[in-house]
Design goal:
With 428 residues, this protein is an all-alpha fold. It has 15 helices and two strands. Helix 2 runs parallel beside helix 4, helix 7 runs parallel beside helix 9 and helix 9 packs across helix 12. The protein starts with a helix and ends in a 17-residue tail after the last helix.
């Protein structure tokens, strides 16, 4: 196929939207931590934009989309070599069986778009490890995880030469590659780090819910590029993905708040924000494969299930500070498995019909395999990487540094310099 300028413009705009999601995530998380850790949280997320981008250009993209077989790519595209040639097609993107998968955008645009996915995925982990992770430890883990965990899983699922892609597992925009992958990695790192000092006995309320709601709005906005951009074209499928994304977030917010009100007697702003994100997570694998009211059902169920899932950390004793496991791991699993029921080839002929559309259990089986493989691979390897980094340079700050806060101990800065002002706003 020839390069299409409209499709290229849409993918470039979508890449910018997805990049904007990482600052949105940073604000979403920063508002939920205590004020002494706000900059530490922001920095961990923003640093992902730096380190991951460089590593993606150097080796990550090639490992994810090079033609190295079913399990991992090769180094043919290391350093983004040859991607400036608009006539180049990536391995597997010419024909997959009888389906034409030729790119209608320059391969360098595709690489740039996928770079933004790689940036935000490990950043999701920081919410689980909030308040206690050493910046140097995070930097080391981040780089290793991007190369050794994210890139192989992306190859399995997103590359037409990947084994899960060939098997028939569907993931339109990253239910397994992004959310399940990061969610199970978060659990692995939390098990290595241990609990925050005082948790769960001490209350550790968010210091700025307006900041969290601002982050939610940015995420919701950017998620349009995340999901609709994954159509890789400015077409009806992108429009369907956009509508599905918004409806799922809206329904999930309602679902979360309904069960929160029933359980606790109040519908909270934090619950509304968390519910919306849960819906965005769950619709991500489904966005380009379902239609009608399916996104509403998927979103509502995700809101309910993810609310219930965050209670598990108290039962099992793992300190998932900002509910990454409950929202991203569980939400990703919910969406990936529900796709096995709601997928409709009338929406996307490149997919398969789910159980409710006459496809039988074949797709659901493939979705289960994809979920299980991602959980096993990422969970085990993430745990090993966290243990290795902890043994070499340490993952966790010292007790006195945790008490003082990450802002001053890791970055020699404070988010809020209010010490020179009295209660009336005058110099004290």
């Amino acid at each position: 196929m020839e390069i299409d300028s409209g499709n290229t413009a849409w993918v470039l705009a979508s890449a910018a939207l997805v990049l904007f999601m990482t600052p949105g995530l940073a604000f979403f998380y920063a508002g939920m931590v205590r004020s002494k850790n706000a900059l530490g949280m922001l920095m961990q997320n923003f640093f992902s934009m730096g380190l991951v981008s460089v590593l993606w250009a150097a080796v990550g993209f090639s490992l994810a989309f090079g033609d190295g077989g079913g399990w991992i790519g090769n180094l043919d595209f290391a350093g983004l070599k040859d991607l400036g040639d608009a006539a180049l097609t990536l391995p597997g993107y010419v024909k997959a069986g009888d389906v034409d998968l030729s790119l209608t955008i320059p391969p360098i645009a595709f690489a740039g778009y996928q770079m933004m996915f790689a940036v935000i995925t490990p950043a999701l982990i920081t919410g689980a490890t909030a308040d206690r992770m050493k910046f140097a430890g995070w930097a080391a883990f981040l780089g290793l995880w991007l190369v050794l965990v994210y890139s192989p899983v992306a190859h399995w699922v997103f590359s037409p030469t990947g084994w899960l892609f060939k098997r028939g597992a569907l993931d339109f925009a990253g239910g397994t590659v992004v959310h399940i992958n990061a969610g199970i990695a978060a659990l692995a790192v939390v098990l290595v780090l241990g609990r925050r000092k005082g948790w769960p006995r001490e209350a550790m309320p968010p210091h700025s819910l307006p900041l969290t709601l601002l982050g939610t709005g940015i995420l919701w906005f950017g998620w349009i590029g995340f999901n609709a951009g994954s159509a890789l074209a400015a077409n009806g499928l992108a429009a369907q993905a956009l509508v599905n994304t918004h409806l799922a977030a809206a329904a999930a917010m309602i679902g979360w708040l309904v069960v929160e009100r029933l359980k606790d007697g109040k519908a909270t702003t934090l619950g509304g924000a968390s519910g919306a994100v849960a819906g965005l997570v769950a619709i991500t694998p489904c966005a380009g494969f379902v239609g009608g009211m399916a996104p509403v059902v998927i979103g509502f169920l995700a809101g309910v299930v993810c609310f219930l899932a965050i209670q598990l950390k108290y039962r099992f004793g793992y300190d998932d500070s900002l509910d990454v496991i409950g929202v991203h791991l569980v939400g990703g699993i919910v969406g990936s498995l529900l796709l096995g029921f709601f997928a409709d080839t009338k929406v996307n002929a490149l997919g398969f019909d789910g159980v409710f559309f006459g496809g039988g259990a074949g797709l659901l089986t493939d979705q289960l395999v994809a979920v299980g493989a991602t959980v096993a691979f990422s969970g085990v390897l993430s745990f090993v990487l966290a243990k290795a980094v902890d043994a070499v340079i340490g993952l966790r700050v010292a007790d006195d540094e945790e008490m003082a806060g990450l802002d001053t101990t890791q970055h020699a800065e404070t988010a809020y310099n209010l010490g020179d002002f009295g209660s009336m706003g005058r110099i004290a």
